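Support request from a user on the community tier.

User writes: "When I paste my structure tokens into the form, the page sometimes reloads and wipes my input. The last time it worked, I copied everything first. Here is what I submitted, just in case something in the input itself triggers the reload:"
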């Protein structure tokens, strides 16, 4: 390979092996991909015994029952590398991950993998890392950008500007950023998340305090996948359960990439000073009920579907501004 870019390789964990889930986490699919590497052929034989896979020759593919959880195709890529491909259900993959963790320790991260070994067909380390990133991203917007990185990095010179802020924003394409909806009770936040998800994920009622814990869902925002969380409505209450749920939601919100500060035409959003360091988008819900008494950045109505497409695009463009995507410069997408 050319265009070599150095990166750390993980130390081998329990039983001389390291592993990771390569396919996107938290997303169901037809097949998941799990990678396991041993320090030598002896350690691989021991790992295969622990996994109860029986004998699989180097270069062969076999169907096996994986950890008594699911049927899987298992490919022995070389003496020291296995690719395991069970069904891609979220619950099944998580169960397998728990068993692997118990046997081999913590999974490794992207920066710890020798991507060139995992993708020997790649023309460079950059392209190998791009293929690894492609196997995990759930955002369609990332595909062409990652495929372009090999050529972009080949043209890189000492004078090519480095932009860590751009690199960080672009990583939202690889890991779904957390977007939190916060506001008073009974303004339509639960109706909104149901409309965005196009399915029932949150209880809806004209009764304050109906949503007593935060509700999360992965959403496709016009090519950018986000983790959208609807929090309990904030109101004066003495209900201990509701107060505890609110505290959990606000604790989660401190890690958000974007806060949606929500109100409706007659109810202003609530200002939360502890979240002042996080980008905020003010949203007026139930826009079909008339003009709002406060200035909102965007108005939407889940009941009539008014403004939903613009709302989704605004979230996407706030998290990953369009001008970052069109720059003809390389992207350091690995950590």
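"...and here is what came back when it finally went through:"
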């Amino acid at each position: 390979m050319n265009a070599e870019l150095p990166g750390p390789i993980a130390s081998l964990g329990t039983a001389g092996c390291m592993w990771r889930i390569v396919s996107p986490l938290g997303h169901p699919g037809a097949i998941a991909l799990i990678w396991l590497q041993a320090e030598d052929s002896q350690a691989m034989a021991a790992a295969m015994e622990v996994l109860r896979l029986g004998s699989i020759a180097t270069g062969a593919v076999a169907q096996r029952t994986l950890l008594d959880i699911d049927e899987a195709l298992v490919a022995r890529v070389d003496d020291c590398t296995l690719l395991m491909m069970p069904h891609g259900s979220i619950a099944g993959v998580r169960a397998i991950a728990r068993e692997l963790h118990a046997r081999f320790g913590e999974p490794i991260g992207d920066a710890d993998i020798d991507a060139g070994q995992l993708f020997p067909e790649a023309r460079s380390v950059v392209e190998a890392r791009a293929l690894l990133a492609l196997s995990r991203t759930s955002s369609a917007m990332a595909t062409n950008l990652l495929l372009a990185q090999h050529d972009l990095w080949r043209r890189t010179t000492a004078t090519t500007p480095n932009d860590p802020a751009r690199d960080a924003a672009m990583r939202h394409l690889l890991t779904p950023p957390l977007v939190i909806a916060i506001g008073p009770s009974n303004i339509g936040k639960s109706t909104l998340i149901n409309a965005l998800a196009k399915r029932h994920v949150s209880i809806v009622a004209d009764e304050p305090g109906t949503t007593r814990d935060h509700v999360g869902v992965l959403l496709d925002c016009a090519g950018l996948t986000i983790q959208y969380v609807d929090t309990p409505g904030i109101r004066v209450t003495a209900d201990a359960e509701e107060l505890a749920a609110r505290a959990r939601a606000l604790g989660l919100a401190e890690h958000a990439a974007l806060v949606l500060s929500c109100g409706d035409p007659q109810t202003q959003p609530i200002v939360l000073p502890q979240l002042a360091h996080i980008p905020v988008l003010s949203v007026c819900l139930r826009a079909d009920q008339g003009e709002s008494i406060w200035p909102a950045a965007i108005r939407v109505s889940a009941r009539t579907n008014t403004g939903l497409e613009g709302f989704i695009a605004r979230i996407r463009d706030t998290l990953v501004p369009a001008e970052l995507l069109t720059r003809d410069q390389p992207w350091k997408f690995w950590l």
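Agent notes: The reload is a front-end session timeout and is unrelated to the input. Confidence is low (pLDDT under 50) at residues 1-14, 202-213. The first strand starts at residue 17 and ends at 21. Escalated to web team.
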